[in-house]
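quick one before i forget lol
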Amino acid sequence: MPQVNDVAPLFELNNTNKEVVSLSDHIGKPIVLAFFPGAYTGVCDTEMCSFRDNMDSFNNLNATVFGISVDSPWANGAFSKEYSLNFELLSDYNRDVIKQYDVTFEGLGGLEGYESSNRAVIIIDSEGVIKYKWVAENPGIEPNYDEVINTIKNL
């Protein structure tokens, strides 16, 4: 269960084109991991669109943003296209990364036994160290976007 000031666990996940994206390839600049429960689930739509709308701030800070869910690359691709998302969505369909980062949520939407990601934001600095970790009390809560941006500014 990685915490603030721990080295971020490395991973490889597929993007919406089924290409492998390796976290290690992005170490060297700030990285935002925005875990979300699932495409087309109301609050997730709002959250991902909020990250989209704040991408100028992230780009100005030379930060990479990844949205991560347990959805398939195809579902993430349709979701990204529909909302014109301007950052990559990664598919943790095996649920390995949500377990590595301890952000698993069970029973989303009342589906007993269904494991998804909880809503969470992890910020990794240019050295690969976790500098911010926010995990929602429940998936209906959005992160504080200003706090996320300000954390990156202060790295």
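fyi The two ends are 22 Å apart (CA to CA).
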